[in-house]
User: Fold these one by one.
Assistant:
Number 1:
Amino acid sequence: MEYIVLENGLSLPKVVFGTYRIHDQDDVRRVISDAYASGYRAFDSAAYYKNEAELREAFDTLKIRDQVLVTSKVWNDAHGYEAVMSEFEKSEARLGKVDIFMLHWPADEFLSRWKALEDIYAAGRVKAIGVSNFKKHHLETLLAHAKIKPMINQIEAHAYFMDYETISYCQAQGICVQAWRPLMRTGDMLQNQEIAQIGQKYGKTTAQVCLRFLLQSGLSVLPKTVKPDRMKENIELFDFSLSAKDMEFMRGLNTGRRTADDPDDYPWNR
């Protein structure tokens, strides 16, 4: 595993295990056990995922909590400073400890909501703070008022959709970009025969080429699976590099079309 060092000095694995839609306690325990055995040392969750308590039970049962980093995110219905502080305490109680805390979307009042995260971080209750689904203009507004910059921004990113405006802005500001849905939940990216041919040159799968493309673009990735073989596949990314020609081909696949909601059009703005 390779690590990225955030602006505040925290070392974070470049491949973070996503836990969205993993709920049942037995499933959570099995999945976390398999993921840890495969080499994952960072796990992404959120209040919206409704699995924080199950994750804590799994970490405690496996006795691995002090060996991993855990992210959680506050949902959009926590309006304002006090509501975010309250929701953090709930997530903290469910997880036992939160290492990284984020705003899930750029919902209304995100400036006062961010102030709560700054105070949580300043008090030493988390190791890092960040945002999710913030576009460049959201970040510009935030940075104009923030005392502490987000250390991470989670955004939809994969070979078929790369928001280079936001990615470039984050990288210029020293904000780590984490790619959620890096293997694209819908569409035909994993059936692309040209990507498969690239993979054959390196003895790698189409999925591994797609993930490696993101890593070489300076992003970290958040793949999600419940299958042990896929867990191993999604983390075995550091024994090869794509050539400049292959990177150019992968960049050319960008359609500019999201597979999820545009943050500017999310329901709270309708």
Number 2:
Amino acid sequence: MLISLIDISALRNWGICGCVGARDSIANDTDRRAGAPPWATLQAISHSEPLPMIDLYTSSTPNGWKASITLEELGLHYTLHPIKLGLQEQKLPEYLKLNPNGRIPTIVDRDEGDFAVFESGAILIYLAEKTGRLMPTAMKPRSQVIQWLMFQMGGVGPMQGQANVFFRYFPEKIPAVIERYQKETKRLFTVLDTRLKDHEYLVDDLSIADIAHWSWVRLHDWAGIAIDDLPHLQRWLALMAARPACQRGIEIPEPFVPKEVTDYAKKIITQ
């Protein structure tokens, strides 16, 4: 069975979820929010802070980080619901009502009648359009951002995900398969490097396309792919890594733990 990193990401017994976004103060007492799924115990927000408009259901995976980094970059107040993939919480009936594909991330916009959005790329577009940020409104640059976002969704993510699986997790080492996915991922990285030679970000200013790619490319070593010969990609990776929102976003709902990722991934592959 072929699986991608979205299915095999770091899985820990995450604790109580809380309201985050611009790192607001949180009350110590806990409460259950009306209408929230039964597994989501939420911390109450200080009355001095704005109520969160977004509920984020996520785990510590590249696709999950795409959503959390975007929310942090936009400074939106949101309520975090950590999804324990190891306990199959993404398959619970309550969650499937929000995301019929049973994957993460998912957001629910409380400002829009509890409107649910699933698929990480769709979430990024939704948040950018909602706020008028991280994606240009002019037709041509907007199209460019969407093009590079689709390049990640249809290329970098799937190929690097399979490189992760066969390089790190699959019980049998199949050199030809490992080489196939690593070489294709490296080719895609080279396309990014060429683009970044003459651009600080993928499209003029920081956009959701940069966030989507960085969430994956930053783990190139995990897929066994060296980028020493891609200087422009390296420069851009460092530029993104220096952004406070990126630093916060990859800690949500918790830091990436390689050993736990590996242990869980190997377990589900052999089931």
